[in-house]
Design a protein that fits this description.
CATH topology: Jelly Rolls
Number of helices: 2
Number of domains: 1
Strand order of the largest sheet: 7-6-8-4-3-2-9
Strand content: 35-45%
Radius of gyration: 14 Å
């Protein structure tokens, strides 16, 4: 899954395709949402965000990827070259979940938040629903 910048007044530019290496992003981050703890990879640079979870065929039950952006905006995501079904939480600068979405493998459908976000958290599909995590939930442990 890769983010696609959605900026007012400009056409969406196609992102360059990259070959998925399956290597972990730069760091692992422990996050807490309510009573639930996740240990996720951090994608904080443009190249890490570009690669995302492309090519991955499995994730740990409490694993996933946290996308961190320099600026809050309406960052959109798609699933090009991503074989895993994922769920995404769009998280604002106050560490609150704004929206949740389920995403189909290999889909180029854009998933965009309803408000500006600074983070996006991808987990195995259904992870938020199975744990009762909903929009408005506080995410603790986000890097600044």
């Amino acid at each position: 899954m890769r983010p696609v910048q959605n900026t007012p007044g400009s056409a969406l530019a196609l992102l360059l395709l990259s070959i998925a290496t399956g290597a972990a992003a730069s760091d692992a981050v422990p996050l807490r949402i309510g009573t639930h703890t996740f240990r996720v990879e951090l994608a904080a640079t443009p190249s890490e965000r570009e690669r995302g979870l492309m090519g991955r065929t499995q994730l740990e039950a409490e694993g996933g990827m946290l996308f961190m952006f320099e600026q809050a905006a309406r960052h959109c995501f798609w699933m090009r070259n991503t074989p895993l079904p994922l769920s995404i939480a769009f998280i604002d600068d106050r560490s609150r979940i704004v929206d949740l979405a389920d995403m189909r493998p290999y889909s180029e459908t854009l998933h965009c938040p309803s408000a500006d976000i600074r983070y996006a958290l991808e987990l195995p599909q259904g992870s938020f629903r199975q744990r009762g995590i909903a929009p408005g939930a506080q995410v603790n442990g986000l890097p600044r």
